[in-house]
Structure formats: structure tokens, C-alpha cells
Amino acid sequence: MDKNKVVSMEEALNAIKDETCLMYGGFGGVGNPPSLIQGILDKGVKGLHLIGNDAGFPEIGIGRLFTAERVQTLITSHIGSNPIAGEQMNQGKIRVTFFPQGTLAEKIRAGGVGLGGILVDVGLGTIAAMEKMTTKVRGKEYIIEPALTGEVGIVYAKQGDAYGNLVFDKSARNFNPMVAMASNLTIAEVEEIVPTGELDPEGIITPGIFVNYVVQSEGVNWPWHWET
Amino acid sequence: MALGDVERQRIARRAALEIKEGMTVNLGIGIPTLVADYIPAEQSVMFHAENGILGVGPSPETGKEDENLCNAGGFPVTLIPGASYFDSTLAFGMIRRGLIDLTILGALEVSEKGDLANWIVPGKKVPGMGGAIDLAQKSRRVIVLMNHTDGKGRPKIVSTCSLPLTAPRCVHLIITERAVIEVQEDGLALKEVLSPYSLQEVVKATGAPLMY
């Protein structure tokens, strides 16, 4: 190991600029990196191209970037929990592309592990398969789905060390391990930064080789919808 | 018209009878979520949540919620013994492999062939499909829980869906506040009429022929 990847929030945010293609982990706000999102808001970054499972809620997680009008395009599976994102889509302010959730997850994983894409039959016979390339393998039809990659990936982990090895927390894992692999530069926001060697190698979910920066989290700074 | 709490609970209670010992079950958002409350404590069922949990247990007591332990609807849950966490590719790998025995979800329309429409009303409501296509197409059995009619009293069970499909020919059973209807090879079979509705009321509110 040649490098301590722990950096300040300010240094990490240098990677995120206007119109960056930003991939994010999280599902309904759970597992979205709160301090990085706050940092993006404070820095004034705009025109972002986002890739992630959903649009959170208007005041929760990644949804806050829609409320603050920082988003230009979104590749996702669902925005039903964020009516502001829906309104912006209907008004033509943001362009949204939808994929079935399992397909989206695999497209991101493919991007993260050096594959060109995946073959999947989910959505055949529906408008989700319209204008898609298909192919037959052993007589069975599949949609050809290209891999997805981002310029910067942001993830939220429970623990991480200076090399960038990551462990996630319960259902906050969701899209984070795939997003951690699929960008040119990955920033891991970590609840607890531990000395290298302290994490059980058997329990590491994301090996540090995929991670470029580790930043200390300040924790979730929004009320959850089940609390209000 | 919107269903009252009594009717929602009654649909959920009836749907729970379809869950058998040892099944792996995914519950959608809305009335399907209520079904878990009617599973007998001694019955061994693995509830799958597509955000990455197998073995979802009951809701936690107020004050004991864990913000990082939620179901796909975003509400805090607990675990049962034997539960596991995993990422979204594995969550959907289980679905795509056909390892989910039963999915219970809501619908906008169901056709007499078992076609399901539940994710988009073009030009009006475009929330995205989420995991609905994966679940509807790949689960071994699909049960729809819904109002028998829409907000204007029009049938939601129809000969041919007018809305874009979530998946063709995927629904096995429909449970509404009025009836239990099975999708069979040769059409829809009316299995039960639920009180206080009459046979005529069910037939009249259904937009496809019923066998009974």
C-alpha cells in the first residue's frame, strides 16, 4: 500500500464540478452519502449528470440536489418518491432515462468489472424493451444492455480504512458496492475511519483498490420520512 | 374510489392465506405490505426486500428504529433469525433466477390473460418501473391486490390492458375488496365473492368475462 487515501471534504469535492457525470449509491435515501451531498450543495455545483437507483425524497439524500436544481440528466429506475424530480422531468428541465432496477444494478456492475454490457430478458414484451438491441443465445432472446460508468462515484460506508477497504451497514449497502467500482474516481464517505489492518479481510465488501478517496462523514443531516 | 382501512385489512388477510410454509415472498408497497401482519407466528416464511434483505421481520417499536435497516418502501424493519444482507445485484439475481416463490403487488389494470399494468400512465404518472418488471416477470407466482374499480368506478380487470404492460401473462390470482379471481388458461375464474357484494355486483364491475 503506497498511499493514505483519507482526504478532506474540500479536496474530495475538487473532483465534482459543473456537469460531472456523478454516480451515487443509496436506495430511497438510505445509503446516500449525506456529507458529500451537503458539500455539493454548499459548493454550488450544477448541471450534474446523475446515475443512481432513485431520486430519494425532496428533502432526503440525493433528492436534495433536485430540489436545489443542480441536476441536468438522470439515469435511474424510479423517481416516484420525489415529486419535485417528477415535476422537473414533466417540465423538460431534466432528462430522465429509466431501466428495470435489476438491469440498472447489473449495468453498473458491468461497468465496474470491465465488461462491455450484459444480456438480460427482463422487460421483453414491454415498452421498456422498445428500440433495444436484442440477440439470441442458445435460442433464447435477450436485450443487449451496455455497461454504465461515471466520472465520479460517491458511496456511503459504515467503516473504511486508509486503503479504502469498505464495509457497509445493513440495507444501506444496496447500490453502493457497484457504484464504488464503476467510476473513474470513487469517493467513499465513511462513518468510521479505522486503522488499516483492523477490518476483517473476510468481511470487506469493497476492496480498497476501487476507492480513490476516503472522507469522514458527519452523518445523516435530514429527518427521515418515517420520523415526520 | 379509495378503499377504507377495513377493506384494505380484509384484502391483506385474505392474501395471507396464499402464503405457505417455507415460501420466499416479496411484498410490494401499499396493501401488500400489510399482508405480513397476518402470517401466523409459527409459520416459517422468508420475506425478501429488493433493497437487499432476505428475512425481513416485523416493524420495530417506536424509538428502536435503525435508519439503515429499512424495507424497499423506506420504512424501518427488523430481521428474523437466518436473515442476510446483500447488494442490489444479488437482490435482483435472486429474482431473475426464479428463486422468489411469490410476489404480491398492486396494479392499475390486469387483463383476462394475466397481463399486468402497474408502472406508468403515459403523460400523467411516470414514476419509473423500479423493480416491478423484474418481480412480475420472474417470480414463480404473482398475486395482485387492488381495488376492483378505479377512481371513476371503471373496471380495473379488463379484456385487454390499455396501459403499457409491466409484464405480459404474469398474474396468477387477483384479490379485490369484492372478489378472488384466478387467471386460468381459458380465462378468469371467479373463486370467491366477498361480503357484502353480490355475484351480480362483481360481474358488473369486471371488464372481462368471468367463469363461475
Secondary-structure topology with pairs:
The complex is a heterodimer of chains A (228) and B (212).
Chain A: H1 9-13, E1 21-24, H2 34-43, E2 48-51, H3 63-67, E3 71-76, H4 83-90, E4 95-98, H5 101-112, E5 117-120, E6 134-137, E7 140-146, E8 150-160, E9 166-167, H6 176-179, E10 183-193, E11 213-216
Parallel strand pairs in A: 1-2, 1-8, 2-3, 3-4, 8-10, 10-11
Antiparallel strand pairs in A: 5-7, 6-7, 8-9
Chain B: H1 5-16, E1 24-27, H2 31-34, E2 46-49, E3 53-57, E4 78-85, H3 88-96, E5 102-105, E6 109-111, E7 116-117, H4 132-138, E8 142-145, E9 157-158, E10 173-175, E11 179-184, E12 187-193, H5 199-204, E13 210-211
Parallel strand pairs in B: 1-2, 1-5, 5-8, 6-9, 8-10, 12-13
Antiparallel strand pairs in B: 2-3, 3-4, 6-7, 10-11, 11-12
Descriptive account of the structure:
By secondary structure, chain A is of the alpha/beta class. Chain A has one domain: Glutaconate Coenzyme A-transferase (3-Layer(aba) Sandwich). Helices cover 19% and strands 27% of the residues of chain A. Chain A contains 6 helices and 11 strands. In chain A, the strands form 2 sheets. In chain A, strands 1, 2, 3, 4, 8, 9, 10 and 11 form an 8-stranded mixed beta sheet that branches. A 3-stranded antiparallel beta sheet of chain A has the order 5-7-6. Chain A is globular, with a radius of gyration of 18 Å. The mean pLDDT of chain A is 97. Chain B is an alpha/beta fold. Chain B has a single domain, classed as Glutaconate Coenzyme A-transferase, CATH 3.40.1080. Chain B is 18% helix and 25% strand. A 10-stranded mixed beta sheet of chain B has the order 4-3-2-1-5-8-10-11-12-13. Chain B has a 3-stranded mixed beta sheet with strand order 7-6-9, with no helix packed on it. Chain B starts with a helix and ends with a strand. Chains A and B meet through helix 4, helix 5 and helix 6 of A and helix 3 and helix 4 of B.
